[in-house]
Amino acid sequence: MEMLPFLLAPFVASLILTGIHAYLGVHVVERGVIFVDLALAQIAALGATVAIVVGMDPHGHASYWISLGFTFLGAAIFAFARTRRGHIPQEAFIGIAYAVASATAILLMSKATGETEHLKDMLVGNILAVSWPEVQKTALLYGVVGAFHYIFRKKFLAISMHHDAPEKLGFNVRFWDFLFYASFGFVVTSSVAIAGVLLVFCYLIVPSVAAMLFADRIGTRLAIGWTMGTLVSALGVLLSVKMDTPTGATIVVTFGGVLVIMFLIHLVLHHGRDARQLDGATSAQREL
């Protein structure tokens, strides 16, 4: 009970991350650009690295805007990398951007003092250190992004779910792709500063993948994803404190373990359903 006040801010922050990332994860998985979050997160981290190297406060406003500028550049690249004929997969550009951003950050950090600690913070973050003002600011920003996506949900869902159909209907796909990735960039830039690259990636992908094991409808997927993210966040934060381990890495491993359990449950349910269908088909053949 004595630890509850200490854990409350990190837990609320994890709930906020779950809320927006589980929704964005549905789009990312449907678009087939699984590593776009990882790439944008790494590009945002590269911007923060540049700010550190030139002597800025990594948690200051100037550092944030530099990081956001780098993320917008990445958003523009990903939006325009979507070729009409699709002869070059968009995921290829995303993978290249991630590799180059990672390598550049490592090179820059090799010239900075305390580079090991900065690299660790970029990867796993330190969500336990989040303050209430950061939580409030993040909640406000994500609320604005969420409202933006709700207002234009039909266009974003049309592009994510149907791929080629929007172009046939006259949509400017690249423009709406840029708006999607740019809004995504706002989320990622703030998330990386709080949770690190790896945890941000897990919040985006793992709840969406887990939800797809059990549901096809968007609303049901979101409900499953939000529930999983909430429970895993609480469990991960608690385990981190109990075992005295890095919080971000602990939540990432907890996400992986829970996903394995959910996949095994899916296999059991799927096998049982297939067995019932096979028994039904066999009975029908006997009756004939």
Write a compact overview of the structure shown.
With 288 residues, the protein is mainly alpha-helical. It contains twelve helices and no strands.
Instruction: Please indicate the percent range of residues in DSSP E strands (runs of 2 or more).
Output: under 5%
Mean pLDDT: 82
Shape: globular
**Given this structure, which CATH class is correct?**
Mainly Alpha
**How much helical structure, as a percent, in the residues?**
over 70%
Total helical elements:
12
Counting DSSP E segments of at least 2 residues, the number of strands comes to 0
| Radius of gyration, taken over Cα atoms and rounded to an integer in Å | 21 Å
What structural category arises from helix and sheet content?
A: mainly alpha
Distance between the termini: 66 Å
Pick out the low-confidence regions. Answer: none
CATH topology: ABC transporter involved in vitamin B12 uptake, BtuC
Major β-sheet, in short?
Answer: none
* Count of separate structural domains: 1
CATH architecture: Orthogonal Bundle
- One letter per element, helices H and strands E, the order comes to HHHHHHHHHHHH
CATH homologous superfamily identity: ABC transporter involved in vitamin B12 uptake, BtuC
Explain this structure:
By secondary structure, the chain is mainly alpha-helical. The protein has one domain (4-287): ABC transporter involved in vitamin B12 uptake, BtuC. 82% of the residues lie in helices and 0% in strands. It is built from twelve helices and no strands. It has helices at 4-31, 36-53, 61-80, 90-109, 115-124, 132-151, 153-162, 165-168, 173-195, 197-212, 218-243, 247-287. Helix 1 (4-31) runs antiparallel to helix 9 (173-195), helix 1 crosses helix 10 and helix 2 (36-53) runs antiparallel to helix 3 (61-80). The radius of gyration is 21 Å and the shape is globular. The mean pLDDT is 82.
